[in-house]
Amino acid sequence: MSSKNFQRYTITAALPYANGPVHIGHLAGVYIPADIYARYLRANDRAVAFVCGSDEHGVPITLRAKKEGATPQQIVDKYHGLIKESFYQLGISFDIYSRTSSPVHHQTASDFFTTLYQKGVFEEKTSEQYYDQKNEQFLADRYIMGTCPVCGNKDAYGDQCESCGSTLSPNDLKDPRSMISGEKPVLKETRHWYLPLDKYEKWLREWILEGHQEWKSNVYGQCKSWIEQGLQPRAVTRDLEWGVPVPLQDAAGKVLYVWFDAPIGYISATKDWAAQNQKDWVPYWQDKETKLVHFIGKDNIVFHCIIFPTMLKAHGGFILPENVPANEFLNLEGNKISTSRNWAVWLHEYLQDLPGKEDVLRFALCANAPETKDYDFTWKDYQARNNNELLAIFGNFINRVLVLTAKYYQGKVPARKTLYSIDEEVIAKLEEFPLRIGKAIEIFKFRDALSELMDLARLGNKYLADTEPWKLIKTDAERVATIMNISLQIAATLAIVSEPFLPFTSAKLLLMLQLDLLKWENAGKISILQPGHQLGESSLLFEKIEDELIEKQVQKLMDTKAANALENKVVTPAKQTVQFDDFTKNDIRIATILAAERVPRSKKLLKLKVDTGFDQRTVVSGIAEHFEPETVVGRQVSILVNLAPRQIMGIESQGMILMAEDKDGSLHFIHPPSTISNGSAVS
């Protein structure tokens, strides 16, 4: 572990994939820790390049585009804008938020590949890969579906079964089919270039296992496991139209594999930032006086600790990461966050639903950061963090100090007089807090740092409780002046050391104190606020979060769970006997499906427009895995028309399509053998 003082820092945060919005798992695992670190370094006058951007290439982008009837560029433009704005509103202080579809990135990635190619680093191999004859294209793993050999799920992907979680290869699937045409693919030879990780295994052992034993145990352990299993060459190209074209004359229809192109995005983002700010990007990637730190989630450890460093080493001239403080995963209300099931708290929706509470989310996610193991986010804990800590401890101390100063001294900082032993003890403790908070940040223990921050606020509250200036003011005004001066110095230090964690709160507090943001070296001193300094108008830093607000967010998740239950409904035994009069309450009619489309963020739901003969209505049905939207339009179906409407994935469903499920799990419409009038009753 290097103990040197670096001249500059390059901080990277994992590039979010531009096929959907950002959720709280991303924030807790990557972006909030990275932002705390970057803000702290800036407060210490370090030169920082904090870079990120949208990862805009790869198969999921093309799948999303096909699903939404758009181009890949339209998809990435949509989500790049949404993600960038959401980060900005939460106060994530990137120096640049770039994107991998930019010209500077395409050129940087192409040049990187060309350098390795010309140095003879790559191995060229020919292999068999599935090919869609109807559409005349090779199929990436995610373009292939079939029956999982482990659990029998008929809709397993070529790289993973989402039913049982097994990692697969396309050749493992039974009855494979193309997701593009639905046809059975054939194996066809194709040529690709491979990064020979096995040739760098000895160097990786020395660099990681011997040279970076200070890395977090989860990171070091995963690297050790990968290396000891033996590394294999890994393809750096793919047969695909969307991406950075392979810069070779005989490589038409091939692009750089997204895992190869995406980390180069850190370099291209730095170039982008440097060009916009008249800076030189080279020292931030090629000077040994620069410290490179990657903030990622645990699913990206192998890419940032083994593959990307191997790429940099093979290229030559680039610095290597000093640390990769990867976090584990954040769960939500006891369940794993799932984007496909919409089981998530999306950042853009949070910002809309709870305006002005950016720092509350930052605080709650940092306090529950999955630094060493998976952690759980609950809305009740979020409420408690706000009400019992931010409001009752931090906010309460600041409010008491400023209100008393306004009351006793017309909002001007009083001068200290004689110091008592309790004052000296508090001053000594105050001086220690910035050091302890900073040390915890520097070793990536952000939860500990946040805990120290709150202990500083507790120190202030205890000092006021022990000295009781509101009682002394009648008998010893000089003593009260000292107490209030020291309390205001604590408040000023809180404004400085809270900025990396709670930037919006820090800004509000600085305005109340009428201070500009000071450097970290000023924190802990008792001369930040000079006697006679006029304070600004005070206001509450935090407000109580009521149960009603939390219940709305919990209900939002419960609605999602209900929708998922509808999607995953299974055949059940015969229900209890009902009376004839009960059965006749069901109004079942024949209807025709007029239009159909997939429900966004759901793989099992279709939104149907149906003609019941007496009206046209919307019905949400869990049949998307069995029928393509275009294949159901024009079909006559049976519909329960007097079912009470309900919200499913934000759509009001007005009825239920009746289906029969065969023993093999396939679904079939209940319909008349020949066309009859819509609205005909089923009895």
What does this structure look like?
There is one protein chain. The protein is α+β, with helices and mostly antiparallel strands. The protein has four domains: 8-116 and 258-327, Rossmann fold, CATH 3.40.50.620; 121-235, Methionyl-trna Synthetase, domain 2 (Beta Complex); 379-522, Isoleucyl-tRNA Synthetase, Domain 1 (Orthogonal Bundle); 580-682, Nucleic acid-binding proteins (OB fold (Dihydrolipoamide Acetyltransferase, E2P), Beta Barrel), CATH 2.40.50. The chain is built from 20 helices and 26 strands. Strands 17, 18, 19, 20, 23 and 26 form a six-stranded antiparallel sheet that branches. Strand 6 (144-147) and strand 7 (156-157) form a beta hairpin. Helix 5 runs antiparallel to helix 6, helix 6 crosses helix 9 and helix 12 runs antiparallel to helix 16 (477-497). The protein is flat. The termini are far apart.
Short description:
With 683 residues, this protein is α+β, with helices and mostly antiparallel strands. The protein has 20 helices and 26 strands.
Quickly count the domains. 4
* Average of pLDDT: 92
CATH class of the largest domain, named Alpha Beta
Helix content: 40-55%
Structural class, judged by helices and strands? alpha+beta
Distance N terminus to C terminus?
78 Å
CATH topology of the largest domain: Rossmann fold
Q: How many extended strands?
A: 26
Number of separate helices:
20
CATH architectural category of the largest domain = 3-Layer(aba) Sandwich
Largest sheet: 6 strands, antiparallel
In the CATH hierarchy, what is the superfamily of the largest domain? HUPs
Rg over C-alpha atoms, rounded to the nearest angstrom: 30 Å
Choose one word for the global shape.
flat
